């Protein structure tokens, strides 16, 4: 048993101790080929004999088969699927091909895997050992990475090995990693002496250890390839030594010494991904190779033959396969295609036929298309993309080839590989597609721009969607309508950064087209276009009709998720907070129901922004925590991470580095081409400057925002501009803002809008009229959800009362404002209220930290959900963690808050 250095041994000892104690631990063992990662994995599995141990190894030839490795890992517990919630059980069953059903979302499969492993640990701790993760199929790798980021208090151990310098395994980035390096010199010399039977010259030994850099596999195999005279120092060692990147060539040299039958047998074995002895024997027989041809390779310890075939090291397999000629590889694949007869292995048979094909072959390509369909039904879109891409290569007809490339790109995008989808789209000759294909290609290109998060990516989307609309317009009205909706949504997101077109141009097209029927999509498009071209008054009735239909709860989940972004954008612009909140909650529920984590992430972020605008900052924090957890499960760039930090929330919270955070978010949004997000960062600055009393700066930024007022996008900044300009003694600017606010708030008619209008009127009113306006604003806003604006109204009223020398009345208003700001967690506004109180002659103490403030964000989120009546499994599904982790955190919450039951949480939270 080889444990390696003290550092590695200690880390793995700690991992096992934590697992035995009921906590979960994850470690990625990273290192070069032969460095000892598998030996460490063997050692930790052996030391965990008292635990349940699951093992699986990635196989390069199996990487194209969806969920293959995950299925092999979980086979012992597929009988426990009944313990899972119905949606999760169905997702995992379909992914493994155990049942038929709609293709499952891969994130729902991930959550099901986490739930299954957590259920297994109810019977005792569990260790999962995964070797050669660089060769796992994409779906299995993503699921295991998801699980690794979410285990905490289940007693689950995950030890994964990955070879450095191989294919991208970005899914593992950020996980605890232990770099496995060569053995120390003393240990390396000990290992070398243990494998050399005869005389070993000390200088030769030192040369071998130095050249191999302590790589155990290189030491073992190099020593066995040297002669007794070389080891004894009587003959010079070969130069260069077969180590490092040359180790594979060393294995190939060994293989070439074998007889032709043995080499052929080894090639067939290396080509069969499962190590299936029956298939290898049958295929080798097709080539005239008897089973005993494997004997020499076994004696050389390159391979072991039992119920399945195992190679000494993955490098042996790759050396054999890579060292064969293309003709020899095709013969092996063809023989295996004929030998692979089980119905369940039809996809592998199709793949072998494809690998054996020398030129385009429609029958082989068609078989791959069928295999791609089977993969899609299991939710294996990465495998579907692989099958279709190869099918396209083998397709004789140019137009059919273009169509299959497009289908492959769509599958790659669905699998979460937008970069691969982008490359496949580049391989398509657009003129070979019909109008529907052209439009589909353009819409997919637009989605890859968004998903890749590249420089100015979003800025290119509106024009791309508009071009797709042009292709669809005469052939498919439904697709044309969806493309136009995509163009509008993208233009609202990109705003002033849009390239190649603009919202006004798109709006003109919307209003010029003659819709055959008034669908929900048509209503939303017309509402936004009318607001853009004709103004607020004409648009509001249309927007109300459209958003009411979205909020009514009559849409299917897919229809709701198609329309919710436009609906919340429209409702935001007319100050309809109730409709916006209803739509956002329905969208989040629909995304959870379907396992659509990308959509859930964006809907929860939008809901967090909604809560922030209302001043419900703690709820916004809980939502942002969920968003952060989801961010770690989906692909994102550093700029996308920055953009999702809610700069408006930062403005309200006003930490010491608030400006730096807001500036980073602004830079990220501009780089991505997301003008609306850049606008959010500027709104964050306005809030921050108002809280700190820098009214001139707030007025400047607010004025700049309104200069870029895309179809009423910054209507909600008008009350802030009135306040900032008034306090900066720029009554002309304040008056202009009030005039526009009066028009829009009156048309909107919602209590939130009317209350803010009264507050803004009070700021500019004569002393005889201001008191009535302030009281009207407070009366109107009090029943609304806008607690932040109500607190600010009390503050402004108190400040006005103090300037009127009504100190007693001012103190009452300012105390109310101070208490509200402290309750919602807006320290800079609270300090502004406190300073005003001091100016009235009253001392206001800062509120001390409360017990609830000691909770971590995750503990707070769990506590709130428990307070609201959700069970542990329901909280686990909501936060994408396990029920065991919920229980662990909830026990800590009870201790911190001094409560004994969930019923008592309402009293202290």
UniProtKB/TrEMBL annotation:
<dbReference type="InterPro" id="IPR036388">
    <property type="entry name" value="WH-like_DNA-bd_sf"/>
</dbReference>
<dbReference type="InterPro" id="IPR016032">
    <property type="entry name" value="Sig_transdc_resp-reg_C-effctor"/>
</dbReference>
<dbReference type="InterPro" id="IPR000792">
    <property type="entry name" value="Tscrpt_reg_LuxR_C"/>
</dbReference>
<dbReference type="InterPro" id="IPR041664">
    <property type="entry name" value="AAA_16"/>
</dbReference>
<dbReference type="Pfam" id="PF00196">
    <property type="entry name" value="GerE"/>
</dbReference>
<dbReference type="InterPro" id="IPR027417">
    <property type="entry name" value="P-loop_NTPase"/>
</dbReference>
<dbReference type="GO" id="GO:0003677">
    <property type="term" value="F:DNA binding"/>
</dbReference>
<dbReference type="GO" id="GO:0005737">
    <property type="term" value="C:cytoplasm"/>
</dbReference>
<dbReference type="GO" id="GO:0004016">
    <property type="term" value="F:adenylate cyclase activity"/>
</dbReference>
<protein>
    <submittedName>
        <fullName>Regulatory LuxR family protein</fullName>
    </submittedName>
</protein>
<keyword id="KW-0067">ATP-binding</keyword>
<feature type="domain" description="HTH luxR-type">
    <location>
        <begin position="848"/>
        <end position="909"/>
    </location>
</feature>
<dbReference type="Pfam" id="PF13191">
    <property type="entry name" value="AAA_16"/>
</dbReference>
<keyword id="KW-0547">Nucleotide-binding</keyword>
<dbReference type="GO" id="GO:0006355">
    <property type="term" value="P:regulation of DNA-templated transcription"/>
</dbReference>
<dbReference type="GO" id="GO:0005524">
    <property type="term" value="F:ATP binding"/>
</dbReference>
């Amino acid at each position: 048993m080889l444990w390696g250095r003290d550092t590695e041994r200690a880390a793995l000892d700690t991992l096992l101790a934590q697992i035995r104690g009921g906590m979960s631990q994850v470690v990625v063992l990273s290192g070069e080929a032969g460095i000892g990662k598998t030996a460490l994995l063997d050692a930790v599995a052996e030391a965990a004999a008292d635990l349940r141990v699951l093992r699986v190894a990635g196989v390069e030839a199996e990487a194209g088969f969806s969920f293959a490795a995950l299925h092999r890992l979980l086979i012992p517990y597929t009988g426990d699927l009944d313990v899972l919630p119905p949606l999760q059980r169905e997702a995992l069953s379909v992914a493994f091909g155990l049942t038929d059903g709609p293709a499952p979302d891969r994130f729902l499969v991930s959550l099901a895997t986490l739930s299954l492993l957590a259920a297994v640990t109810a019977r005792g701790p569990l260790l999962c050992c995964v070797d050669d993760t660089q060769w796992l199929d994409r779906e299995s790798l993503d699921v295991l990475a998801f699980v690794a980021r979410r285990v905490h208090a289940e007693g689950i151990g995950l030890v994964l090995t990955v070879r450095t310098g191989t294919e991208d395994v970005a899914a593992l980035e950020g996980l605890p990693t232990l770099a496995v390096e060569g053995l120390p010199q003393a240990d390396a010399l000990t290992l070398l002496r243990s494998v050399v039977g005869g005389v070993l010259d000390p200088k030769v030994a030192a040369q071998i250890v130095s050249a191999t850099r302590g790589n155990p596999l290189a030491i073992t195999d190099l020593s066995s390839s040297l002669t007794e005279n070389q080891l004894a120092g009587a003959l010079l060692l070969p130069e260069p030594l077969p180590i490092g990147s040359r180790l594979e060539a060393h294995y190939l040299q060994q293989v070439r010494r074998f007889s032709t039958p043995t080499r052929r047998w080894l090639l067939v074995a290396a080509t069969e991904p499962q190590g299936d002895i029956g298939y290898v024997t049958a295929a080798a027989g097709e080539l005239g190779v008897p089973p005993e041809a494997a004997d020499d390779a076994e004696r050389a310890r390159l391979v072991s033959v039992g119920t399945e075939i195992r190679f000494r090291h993955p490098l042996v397999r790759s050396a054999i396969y890579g060292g064969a000629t293309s003709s020899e590889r095709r013969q092996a694949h063809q023989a295996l295609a004929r030998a692979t007869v089980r119905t369940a292995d039809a996809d592998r048979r199709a793949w072998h036929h494809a690998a054996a094909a020398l030129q385009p072959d429609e029958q082989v390509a068609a078989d791959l298309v069928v295999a791609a369909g089977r993969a899609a039904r299991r939710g294996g879109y990465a495998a579907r993309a692989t099958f279709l891409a190869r099918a396209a290569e083998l397709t004789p007809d140019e137009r059919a080839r273009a169509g299959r490339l497009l289908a492959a790109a769509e599958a790659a995008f669905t699998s979460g590989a937008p970069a691969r989808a982008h490359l496949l789209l580049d391989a398509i000759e657009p003129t070979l597609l019909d109008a529907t294909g052209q439009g589909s290609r353009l819409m997919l290109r637009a989605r890859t721009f968004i998903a890749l998060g590249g420089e100015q990516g979003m800025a290119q989307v509106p024009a791309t969607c508009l071009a797709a609309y042009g292709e669809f317009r005469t052939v498919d009205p439904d697709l044309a309508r969806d493309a136009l909706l995509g163009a509008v949504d993208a233009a609202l997101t990109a705003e002033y950064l849009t390239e190649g077109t603009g919202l006004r141009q798109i709006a003109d097209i919307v209003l010029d087209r003659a819709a055959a029927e008034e669908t929900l999509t048509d209503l939303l498009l017309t509402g936004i276009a009318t607001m853009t071209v004709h103004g607020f008054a004409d648009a509001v009735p249309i927007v109300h009709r459209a958003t009411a239909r979205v909020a009514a709860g009559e849409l299917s989940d897919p229809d709701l998720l198609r329309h919710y972004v436009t609906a919340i954008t429209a409702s935001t612009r007319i100050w309809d907070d109730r409709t916006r909140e209803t739509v956002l909650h329905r969208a989040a529920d629909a995304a959870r129901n379907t396992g659509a984590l990308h959509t859930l992430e964006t809907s929860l972020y939008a809901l967090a922004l909604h809560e922030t605008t209302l001043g419900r900052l703690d709820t916004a924090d809980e939502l942002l925590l969920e968003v952060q957890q989801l961010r770690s499960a989906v692909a994102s760039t550093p700029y996308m991470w920055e953009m999702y930090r809610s700069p408006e929330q930062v403005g309200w919270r006003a930490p010491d580095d608030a400006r730096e955070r807001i500036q980073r978010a602004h830079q990220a949004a501009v780089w991505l081409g997301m003008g609306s997000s850049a606008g959010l960062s500027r709104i964050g600055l306005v809030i921050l400057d108002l809280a700190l009393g820098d009214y001139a700066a707030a007025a400047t930024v607010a004025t700049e925002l309104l200069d870029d007022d895309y179809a009423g996008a910054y209507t909600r900044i008008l009350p802030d501009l009135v306040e900032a300009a008034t306090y900066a003694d720029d009554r002309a600017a304040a008056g202009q803002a009030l005039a526009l606010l009066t028009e829009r708030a009156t048309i909107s008619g919602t209590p939130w809008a009317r209350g803010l209008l009264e507050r803004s009127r009070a700021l500019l009113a004569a002393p005889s009229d201001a008191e009535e306006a302030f009281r009207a604003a407070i009366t109107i806003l009090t029943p609304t959800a806008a607690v932040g604006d109500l607190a600010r109204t009390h503050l402004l009223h108190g400040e006005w009362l103090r300037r009127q020398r009504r100190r007693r009345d001012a103190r009452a208003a300012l105390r109310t404002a101070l208490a509200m700001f402290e309750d919602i967690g807006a320290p800079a506004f609270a300090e502004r209220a406190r300073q005003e109180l001091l100016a009235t002659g009253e001392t206001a103490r800062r509120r001390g930290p409360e017990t609830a403030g000691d909770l971590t964000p995750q503990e707070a989120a769990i506590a709130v959900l428990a307070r609201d009546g959700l069970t542990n499994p329901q909280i686990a599904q909501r936060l994408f963690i396990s029920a065991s982790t919920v229980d662990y955190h909830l026990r800590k919450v009870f201790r911190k808050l001094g409560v004994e039951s969930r019923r008592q949480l309402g009293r202290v939270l």
